[in-house]
Amino acid sequence: MTQHLHTHLSASPRIKRADQIAEAIKRWVVINNVQLGDKLPNEKKLMDLFDCAKGTVREALKSLEVQGLITVKTGPNGGASLAAVPYPLASKLLRNYLHFQSPSSSDLYQLRKLLEPEIAIMAMDALSDKDLHELERITQLCDHAPQDNAERIIQRIAELDFHNLLAERCGNPILGFIGHFLNDMIKDLVIYKKMQLPEQHEFSCANLHYHQALIKALRAKNKTLVQQLMLEHMQSAHQFNLELEAQLTEQLLVDL
Amino acid sequence: MTQHLHTHLSASPRIKRADQIAEAIKRWVVINNVQLGDKLPNEKKLMDLFDCAKGTVREALKSLEVQGLITVKTGPNGGASLAAVPYPLASKLLRNYLHFQSPSSSDLYQLRKLLEPEIAIMAMDALSDKDLHELERITQLCDHAPQDNAERIIQRIAELDFHNLLAERCGNPILGFIGHFLNDMIKDLVIYKKMQLPEQHEFSCANLHYHQALIKALRAKNKTLVQQLMLEHMQSAHQFNLELEAQLTEQLLVDL
DNA sequence: CCCAATTTGTTCGTATGTATC
DNA sequence: AGATACATACGAACAAATTGG
After folding, report:
1. Which chain C positions come under 7 Å from a protein C-beta?
2. Is residue A110 within 8 Å of residue B114, measured between CB atoms?
3. Which residue of B lies nearest to A177 if distances are taken between CA atoms?
4. A144 min Cα distance to partner chain B (Å)
5. Span A132-151, mean pLDDT?
6. Distance (Å, rounded) from C-alpha A122 to C-alpha A207?
7. Interacting residues of B250 by C-beta distance below 8 A, sequence separation 6+
8. A81 burial class (0-12, 13-18, 19+ CB within 10 angstroms)?
9. Which residues contact B167 (CB under 8 A, 6 or more apart)?
10. Which of A146, A240, B71, B83 could cross-link with A203 by S-S, CB 3.0 to 4.6 Å?
C-alpha cells in the first residue's frame, strides 16, 4: 500500500515509519475486531502486511507495548496479544507527566479533601461483607506502634490501601482511578521523602481512629457521617503533613 | 556494568534487554544531572556505553519517546534530548487506560460537578485582564446559531476551551490536569458520538448564558456566585446530556 | 542552490534464546 | 530429548533528513 504523499504545504513534523506502522496496527485491530487477549499476526506476517522490515515492526510493537495496549510473549503460540492497559502502567505514565509540573503536597491534599468524601459515600452501598472485613483487616495492621522501619512502611501502605479499596468500589471508574492515583502520589511522598523523620505517633493514631470510625459508619450506612468523617480525616492528614514539612525544612536548615 | 544475575528462585518475568537499557538510560540521565532540553549521547555512544546493538538502543529510545520523556531529531546536532511530557500525550495515554473501564457520561459529569466549581474559584484570583478578554472572545464565538456543522464543532470546542483556560489558571497542576482531561473526554463524546443528532439550541443558549454570567462574576471576584454558577452550569449540562442520550437510544431503536 | 557532514531511520541476513509440543 | 515456532538480539549496510558551509 502506498504512503500518503508528503505535501510540504505546512511544516508537518514528518511522521516516522515505525509510528505509522503502530497506528496501522491499531487500525488493523479495530477493523478485524480483535478482542482483548486475541493474538495479532506475528512479526513476519506484520512485516509483509505493512511491507517493512523486522526492526521497524519491532519498534512499532514496542510503542504499543509501552502504552500497555499489547503484551508480547516469546516461543510457540507467542507473539503480540491485545491487552487492557494495566492500572500500574497508567499511573506511572501520568506520574511522568506530573513530575514536570511539580505539584506540592498541598495540591494533593486539596484534591483528596474534595474527592475522598465523595468516594466514600459512593462506595458505601457497593461494599460487600467481605470488603468490610478486608477494611478491618487492613486497619488492624495499624492498631499498634511499629516495631521497626519495615513495619512502619507496611502500616503506611495499609493506610493507603484502605482508601484504595474504597476507590475501587466507588462505581465511577474515573473517580476510582484518580483516587487510587492520588494515593500513589502520597505513597511516593511518604515512602521516599518523609521516612527520614521520626515516626509520627499522633498522626498514626489519628488515622487509626478515623479508619475505625469510618468502618463503623460504613456498616451503619450513615451517609452524612461517612462524608463528614472522611473530610475530617483528610483535613487532619493535610494538617499533619504541613507540620511534617515544616520539620523537614527546619532539619534541612540545621544540616546546613 | 554487569547485569543482575537471574536467580530462578521466583518466576520472575524476564526483563527484556531493551527495557533494561531504557531504565539504564533513565539512571544515566539523573546521575549525569541532564536538564530539560539537554542532549543524550547519540546512538553510537549509547551502543558502546551499554554494550549492545543499534536495534536494541533504538527500541530503548523508542520506549522513552513513547512515554514522552525524550524527543529525537535527525541530522547534525540531532539525537535524543530530555523533554517534559507534553500534556496531549499524557491525556492520550490516560484515555487508553480509561477506554477499557468504559466510563459513562454521567461518570464524567459527576466529576465535573465536583471539580469545575473548585477550579473556577481557584482560578478567579489568578486571572489576568488578558485572560478575561480571552474568555470573552471564546464566549463570543458561541453567541449566535451555527451556520453549518463545521461552526457547530467550533462552538462546542470553544465552550470547552472556556473551561480549559480556567483549569490552566487554577494553580493546582493536578486539578488543572484533571479538569483539562475531563474536557478532552467530553470532546470525544460530543464530537464523535453526538454530532449525528440535530443541534441542541437550548443547550447552546444555556451554556452561553452561564459563560457570560461566569465572566461577570469572575470580574466581580464574587466567589460564592462563581461557585454557584459553575455548579448550576454543570448540572444543566449533565441534564441536557442525559436527554441527548435518551434521544440517541430512541433513534437507535427506530433504526432497528 | 548545492554539497558535504552528521545523525537518525530502515533494511537485510544471521544467530540466539525461549517456550511449546 | 528433540523439533518447531516464535521473539530477541547482533552487525553491517544503506536511505533519508537536517544542518552548515
Report:
1. 5-14, 17-21
2. no
3. B98
4. 32
5. 95
6. 21
7. none
8. middle
9. B119, B123, B175, B176, B177, B179, B180, B183
10. A240
* Contact check, Cβ <8 Å, A93/B93: yes
Of all residues in chain B, the one with the smallest CA distance to A69 is B96
> Which residue ranges have CB below 7 A from strand D?
A 6, 14, 42-44, 54-55, 58, 61, 72-80; B 16-18, 51-56, 59, 73-78
Phi, psi of B73 (to 5 degrees): -125, 155
**Helix pair A173-193, A87-99: axis angle to 10 deg:** 60
Query: CA nearest B251: which of B188, B197, B191, B189?
Result: B197
Rounded mean pLDDT of B38-47? 97
For chain A, what is the mean pLDDT?
Answer: 92
Which is nearest to A120 in space by CA: A167, A181, A158, A162?
A: A167
The SS3 call for residue A146 is coil
Q: Identify the bridge partners of residue B39 per DSSP, sorted by sequence position.
A: B81
CA dist., res. B104 & res. B249, Å (int): 14
Specify the residue for cell string 474568555. Answer: B135
CA–CA gap between residue A9 and residue A132 (Å, rounded): 62
Q: Is the pTM of this model over 0.90?
A: yes
Whether residue B49 contacts residue B32, with contact meaning beta carbons closer than 8 Å, is answered with no
Those residues whose C-beta lies under 8 Å from the C-beta of residue B91, and which sit 6 or more positions away, are: B180, B181, B184
Residue B196 in grid coordinates: 449525528
* Covered bases, chain D (protein CB within 7 Å): 4-13, 16-20
**Rounded to whole angstroms, how far apart are CA atoms B152 and B149?**
5
Burial B191-203 (b: 16+ CB within 10 A, else e): eeebeeeeebeeb
H-helix or E-strand spanning residue B114: helix B105-126
Residue tagged 483556560 (cell numbers)? B165
Kindly report, residue by residue over A102-121, the tens digit of the pLDDT. Answer: 999 999 999 999 999 999 99
Chain centroid offset of residue A229 CA = 24
Q: What is the pLDDT of residue B255?
A: 66
Distance in angstroms (rounded) separating the CA atoms of residues B70 and B27: 14
Weakest-pLDDT range from A67-71, A95-99, A153-157, B162-166 = A153-157
What are A97's three cell numbers? 507527566
The 8-class DSSP code of residue A39 comes to B
Model confidence pLDDT, tens digit, residues A1-54: 333 333 334 556 778 999 999 999 999 999 999 999 999 999 999 999 999 999
Q: How many Å lie between the alpha carbon of A118 and the closest alpha carbon of chain B? A: 9
